[in-house]
Design brief:
Strand order of the largest sheet: 1-2-3-4
Largest sheet: 4 strands, antiparallel
Order of helices and strands: EHHEEEHEHEE
Strand content: 25-35%
Helix content: 25-40%
Shape: globular
Length: about 160
């Protein structure tokens, strides 16, 4: 397994497969009105490098296996920026440090844009424990799309 990370802008042919991963692992459960088609449309808006929102893709050879986004905002706390969002890894590739690689790349991208802090929100109440092990700090709770979310940050 050789994992590479690319900007979505450089491999847009993978948008349908990535949208399916994102939809199946996150959006279907937490965004009731979402469809794979609407997820494709939203992901297409992240196919850029020079401004936010942007997305990066983890590839095993030429197979898309995960993604993460860097956004100005993720739907809450507009005074806080930027946000790690939509971290999604194909379930067959979990527990292989791919999520960590994607997070590290998003952190580097935020830092290269002169950011000092990065934020995230977690719908799933079990996920903050994993992020805490990676150095993220719990900073509060909020609500998004009718669901409670945990808000976390990390210094860059």
């Amino acid at each position: 397994m050789t994992i590479t990370i690319k900007f979505l802008q450089d491999c847009q042919e993978h948008i349908p497969a990535l949208a399916k991963i994102w939809y199946e692992t996150i959006r279907r459960k937490w965004v009731k009105e979402a469809t794979v088609k609407s997820t494709i449309v939203e992901l297409m808006q992240h196919a850029q490098k020079d401004k936010l929102p942007l997305a990066i893709v983890a590839l095993d050879g030429n197979d898309p296996i995960g993604m993460a986004c860097l956004r100005d905002n993720d739907g809450i706390l507009p005074e806080k920026t930027p946000w790690l969002g939509s971290l999604a890894v194909d379930p067959k590739y979990r527990r292989k440090k791919i999520g960590e690689k994607l997070i590290d790349e998003i952190k580097s991208l935020a830092k290269s844009r002169k950011q000092e802090k990065l934020y995230l929100l977690a719908f799933d109440p079990t996920i903050p424990t994993w992020y805490s092990r990676l150095g993220w700090k719990h900073i509060g709770h909020d609500e998004l799309l009718g669901h409670p979310v945990t808000v976390m940050s990390i210094d860059l």
